[in-house]
Amino acid sequence: MAHRGRITTFASFSLGNTRSVAINTILGFSWDQQRGRAENLATRYPFAQDALGFFRQLISFQETMFEGLPVQPEHVPVEKDGPFPLRELFGEQHHDLLLSKFPEFLDLVQKIAPSALAEAAGALRSVPAERWEALLDAYWFQDTGQPDSPDEAGAIDFFPKAFLQPYAAGLANRVRGDGNEAGIDWKVAEGIGVCPMCGAKAQVSVLRPESHGASRTLLCSLCATEWRFKRVRCVSCGEEEFDRLLYHSTDQFPHVRLNLCETCHTYIKEVDLTKETQAVPVVDEIATIPLDIVAVERGYHKLELNLIGM
């Protein structure tokens, strides 16, 4: 969800086949790869240590929760139909599997999160389970309404996003597992800025090496599907006029840049794997906090807040 004029909601810290990448865990990289990259970047960028520490604890919970589910996504019957195949899979069976884990997740957030987010977790902990179910449903179907403030948006989005990510990624991998890729027209998806699998927004843009340069892909913020996207096109509004699409990079982060749209004033970060092959896009996106500061100071709003609410 886009926000203008601020970098964070609740989080407050110190400063191959590019059509559809197979997901073994979440966001295209193993849990160990994500943790290792976060540790490496925390050493490289001391201002990001708190943010990356919070991220590491969150994904450790995600890994434990996912591996502890009594029924894994590969055992769930799949009906591959409709524009966003994953949306129709979140039925009663999924509620039963996941809701029992939600209190544990809220307890963890209360312990490790910044104060405002911890307080929100405490408030959610006290409401009936029916409210949790409604919250998860709303996010899954991308029907979170129009919140009155950025803080409210953060309250709506953080909890279901962080909680549902690993399960959504597993389901997406299951849908793609037979090679039919859910009947999605990936050529059409190259011009669409939302995930063709689940309808969520892109978290980060990625440049991947190809024989004649680099291809651009987008990485889904929820189910980890990665799909090819046009090189010169705004992910938010579809603007393709070259002089309306700006880029900002710094010597501090030579492999990460801001993609800025002058038409809708939205930005997304882009991680260039041709410049740093060891980058893990979702982790590098979190670590490059100064780029968010630059974008917000220039009046742009972020397409999608990352896992830790920044």
Please give the structural blueprint.
Layout (H helix, E strand, L loop, with lengths): L30 H14 L4 H20 L23 H8 L2 H11 L2 H11 L3 H12 L9 H27 L9 H4 L12 E9 L2 E8 L5 E3 L16 E5 L6 E6 L4 E7 L8 H7 L1 H9 L3 E2 L8
Parallel strand pairs: 1-6, 6-7
Antiparallel strand pairs: 1-2, 2-3, 4-5, 5-6
Helix pairs in contact: 1-2, 1-9, 2-4, 2-7, 4-5, 6-7
Helix content: 25-40%
Average pLDDT, all residues: 83
Which sequence of SSEs, written as H and E, runs from N to C?
HHHHHHHHEEEEEEHHE
Write the CATH fold name.
FdhE-like fold
Structural class: alpha/beta
- Per DSSP E runs of 2 or more residues, the count of β-strands stands at 7
CATH class: Alpha Beta
Radius of gyration: 18 Å
Major β-sheet annotation? 7 strands, mixed
Give the end-to-end Cα distance, rounded to a whole number of Å. 11 Å
* Net shape: globular
CATH architecture type: Alpha-Beta Complex
Which consecutive residue ranges, at least 5 long each, have pLDDT under 50?
Answer: 1-25, 145-151
Domain count, please report it.
Answer: 1
How would you name the CATH homologous superfamily?
FdhE-like domain
**Beta-strand content bin:** 5-15%
How many helices? The count is 10
Structural account:
By secondary structure, this protein is of the alpha/beta class. It has a single domain (31-302), classed as FdhE-like domain (FdhE-like fold), CATH 3.90.1670. It has 10 helices and 7 strands. Strands 1, 2, 3, 4, 5, 6 and 7 form a 7-stranded mixed sheet that branches. A hairpin with a 6-residue loop joins strand 4 (245-249) and strand 5. Helix 2 (49-68) runs antiparallel to helix 4 and helix 4 (102-112) packs antiparallel against helix 5 (115-125). Residues 1-25 and 145-151 have low confidence and may be disordered.
